[in-house]
Design a protein that fits this description.
alpha+beta, 3 domains, two-stranded antiparallel ribbon, 10 strands, 22% strand
């Protein structure tokens, strides 16, 4: 749209106006070409499709988060009846990791780390424990995990991790862990 001069009073008038707003002189408005109209419709359709796609993605994300939260709630129902978790604290060992006693985990108790991998890995790295490429966990109590990790699939290291406290305790000879496989 552009401004043109009214042929009668020389005032500025839109090129799509039917008449001059000042003097009322009748004007022939500029007609939009059919290609301009179809391009405008296509742009409107594209914007509508983009909005619909964003809405669908938001709903999928929302449902995924709800599903994850409900599956985390089910972790509290894990049976820990065959685990003796009397815990006694000792002083820190030479690697700076605290020891813990009396924890027993059997071969069939181990599960893949799954959703807990990120928070457990964070605690391991924060405590300078490296070389664990494969993890298996057993939830002893809420937010208390026995961890079996290996870098080669044959030699296992065992820990008890408290992700909410950023604490990790190394296994000792009084603890009993069967390898996950």
């Amino acid at each position: 749209m552009a401004l043109i001069n009214c042929p009668e009073c020389n005032s500025k008038v839109s090129d799509i106006a039917n008449s001059c707003p000042k003097c009322g002189y009748p004007l022939e408005p500029k007609k939009l070409k059919t290609t301009e109209l179809s391009e405008k419709k296509n742009t409107d359709k594209s914007a509508g499709c983009m909005i619909a796609l964003i809405c669908v993605a938001a709903v999928v994300l929302f449902l995924t988060l709800i599903n994850k939260c409900s599956s985390d709630d089910n972790l509290d129902k894990i049976n820990t009846s065959n685990v003796n978790h009397t815990i006694n604290y000792e002083s820190k060992n030479s690697s700076g990791v605290d020891n813990i006693e009396q924890t027993k985990v059997y071969k069939n108790d181990w599960k893949p780390a799954g959703d807990n991998l990120a928070k457990i890995s964070k605690v391991l790295v924060k405590n300078n424990i490296y070389g664990c490429g494969e993890y298996y966990i057993f939830e002893i109590t809420s937010n208390e995990f026995a961890i079996a990790c290996t870098g080669d699939g044959a030699n296992w290291n065992y820990y008890v991790v408290y992700p909410n406290l950023d604490k990790i305790y190394s296994a000792n000879e009084q603890m009993y862990f069967e390898p996950p496989y």
